[in-house]
Design brief:
One of its GO terms (cellular component) is nucleolar ribonuclease P complex. One of its GO terms (molecular function) is metal ion binding. InterPro entries: Rpr2/Snm1/Rpp21. By secondary structure, the protein is α+β, with helices and mostly antiparallel strands. The radius of gyration is 27 Å and the shape is flat. A hairpin with a 5-residue loop joins strand 2 and strand 3. Helices cover about 35% and strands about 10% of the residues. Helix 3 packs antiparallel against helix 4. The two termini are about 55 Å apart. A 3-stranded antiparallel sheet has the order 1-2-3, with no helix packed on it. It has a domain of about 100 residues. About 5% of the residues have low confidence.
Length: about 160
């Protein structure tokens, strides 16, 4: 064997030595982090699909309201099947009956009513004429706005 062939065999990268007697370590191959992330949020794929459908519904609201309604209903169905909660702020932007994304310019009309003791905002869907009233009570707080009610917050990176 020539001296260059010996140098080439010496320069080849050597596989890492395992000191755990044949047992595979989850942290060495990078799968440990993925498994931990999967344990933290079991419905991540459903949340991602719901997010995509919501964005598509909002995008299609002005150009094709019927398609927007279809995407909105499908988002609700995915959440219901996976038993996942939708944030109240997102629920308020979708029509409860037809599922279309409510935007003030094209798919909804907003009316503000003020009486002596009662005041509310009425949102009326222009497609199905469904109306929803949101009362303005000073004592009322949304449960998610209360820091004591939030058990954990999941962040998707």
């Amino acid at each position: 064997m020539s001296s260059t062939a010996k140098e080439e065999t010496n320069n080849k990268p050597q596989p890492p030595k395992n000191n755990n007697n044949g047992k595979q370590n989850n942290n060495s191959n990078g799968n440990g982090n993925a498994k931990k992330q999967a344990r933290l949020c079991p419905g991540r794929d459903s949340y991602e699909r719901m997010n995509f459908l919501y964005q598509a519904s909002v995008l299609m609201a002005e150009s094709a309201p019927a398609l927007s309604g279809c995407y909105g209903k499908l988002m609700k169905a995915v959440g219901k099947k996976a038993v996942l909660r939708v944030e109240p702020a997102i629920k308020r932007t979708l029509c409860a009956r037809c599922g279309v994304a409510l935007s003030s310019s094209s798919t909804a009309s907003y009316s503000d009513f003020r009486h002596k003791k009662l005041s509310y905002v009425e949102v009326r869907c222009k497609l199905c004429a469904f109306s929803k009233r949101y009362y303005e009570n000073k004592k009322h707080r949304i449960r998610l706005d209360d820091p004591a009610a939030v058990v954990e917050t999941m962040e998707f990176n």
